[in-house]
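Figure 2 data, in text form.
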Amino acid sequence: MTKETTYGLSFVQRRDARTWDYELSNHSAANLGTLVGDPSVEDTAGFDRSARTLDEPRLVQWRRTLGVPRIHVLPDLFSERNTQAILYYLLMLIPAVSVLVLALRWRGHLTSPAVLASPGLQIGVVTVLSLLLNLFLIRGNIDSRLGEVIVPAAVLAPWLIAQILAARQTHPPAGAVTHADGAPATVYPPPARRWRRLSATLVAGWVALWVGLYGTAGDRLLRAGVIAGPFGLVDSLRDQWQRLAGDPLDFWAPEDSVAGSRILIRYVRQCVSERDRVIAIGYMPELYVVAQRRFAGGMGVFTHWVDSALLQNQAIARLREQSVPVVIIDESERAHFKEHFPLLAEYLEQRFRQGHRLEFLPGDRFTVLTDPARVPTGTHRTLGLPCYSASEPD
């Protein structure tokens, strides 16, 4: 019998790898108390743990009391996965429609007020840029890629809506009249109908809704203090000002950090001199910024785009001239590094022979290599790693 059956839980949605939303069918205090005390349940939310009562809206209480069944209208319509898919196809559609509109304008089949000095050239450049960004940047982890290509689409979308609202389809003259001075004048059909304006408004509103849902606009406004009113906004601005004015190390890698990459950032700041450089093998570009130490070998990140023999030899030549006491290796990236940077890997193995293996969380493993030619000035109290500056912790 599963835990869901034991406690009368009906699955609603999964938020992330460790968090699920359920609806309870057994609301008794005894059942809630047993659920809270179950060692296999890491955490709970949505009810008072001490009073053992549910914290639920009044409408939900009435629905449960009256026995009204839960109805799903278009389930998962506003889910994150659907939002990603819709925004993806929207980003692909916007430049395609822009090309079509530009072609119709160029062929003379569509006319609209020119809000730009050279609309064909300017919008054409933005359209090409949007197409290129979509082609080369949208891949793999799409949730982090959509934001990188949104700017050209955000420029094209208002222009398209304006064209749809104001466009006139070119027809043969619907009639001819003569001015008082005898000059002929051509009469065209009336401009866009109301249905076109309504359709464009609905589309714009629908797009704004999807973008807001995907960007968690409500959560961001709440965290910014906007929803809390003027005083909440002032408090939020004050907190942000204090955070920006402080040391980024305290924000990104505080003393109570549990992630290995962040703990090692603090180690580098404390135990590597400002005159020295550091190598981080793995995707840790923030290490150099937050620790305020320069990267060695001329490579901040080791990717397969810069793994040619020429570039590897150039990096090795730089390393021979630089002071590099510490190399940090993310063990999950070691195999990839050896495969794509064999020359550089061989050089590091010859120069740095003293390795310290660390595991901070299950699977969060790092190896710290140190230069045997360098004499440490102390030892890091927590990690036990050698320090090469006068600012190591006591």
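Caption note: The radius of gyration is 31 Å.
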